[in-house]
């Protein structure tokens, strides 16, 4: 084999073909991201080192990483991180991987806070927090604007709780992390904002999802019961006692916009708004309790 076969350029070319043949949609991006991970380079450094020969240990690690990705094992579980709202979050097995579309949920929560409490601290609950990406990003963005909110991240999964705590520490976010089945740990407490990206995939649809999701991401974080709306019912039923007067709730959802908005209206929520993501898909619902 020619020596140039060991250059970053050639290795990435071979990796891209392998991933393409395996049916990986973003094969070129994933080959590049795995190289950045294995070679411990920034993107700028990669651009300047395409003709650099990779050492044997790194080549072996790259091959192993590409083989794992070719099996549809999630890229973020291999690299151990992903970006969200401009921050880098750790990712681990048994915890849902943050999605770009979910940034809309964090953005709308920030808008609600800046609308109602631009200069004062408020109490915020991030239910079904997973990796903590929404609640931590919210906290850090508010802190950047000069407000230190009391933010609690909550999840029923021990794996999620551990990862959310580690992400909070890594990003120096002074948030609380509490294990709870929805509101169980918060009896007698009211919040100014409740944010939630709960499980919302219809049970029978999970086996039809892309293999990266159905085979590797936790069903606990995906399964929203038969119609995908079980957690919205459970959360919405408790909103009158959990939200401060004039407080806001924000949901990410996948199906059932009309049904979720109907639930919110039925418990007296007002100013119900529907927001679309960049692909123009309905993604976030926000509402307020009566002041």
Describe the structure.
The chain is an alpha/beta fold and 291 residues long. It has 2 domains: 3-71, no CATH class; 96-288, Vaccinia Virus protein VP39 (Rossmann fold). It is 41% helix and 18% strand. The protein is built from 11 helices and 9 strands. The strands form 2 sheets. A 7-stranded mixed sheet has the order 5-4-3-6-7-9-8, sandwiched between helices. It has a two-stranded antiparallel sheet with strand order 1-2. The longest helix has 15 residues, at 56-70. It is elongated and about 70 Å long. The model has no long low-confidence stretch (mean pLDDT 96).
Characteristic key phrases:
single chain; alpha/beta; Rossmann fold; two-stranded antiparallel sheet; 9 strands
CATH architecture of the largest domain: 3-Layer(aba) Sandwich
The ordered string of helix (H) and strand (E) elements is: HHHHHEEHEHEHEEHHEHEE
Tell me the quaternary state.
single chain
Q: What is the fold-level CATH name, i.e. the topology of the largest domain?
A: Rossmann fold
Counted up, domains total 2
Q: Name the beta content range.
A: 15-25%
Question: What is the structure about, briefly put?
Answer:
The protein is α/β, with parallel strands linked by helices and 291 residues long. The chain has helices spanning 8-21, 27-39, 43-48, 56-70, 75-79, 103-116, 133-144, 158-170, 211-214, 230-242, 257-266, and strands at 81-84, 87-90, 123-127, 150-155, 176-179, 191-196, 243-252, 270-276, 282-288.
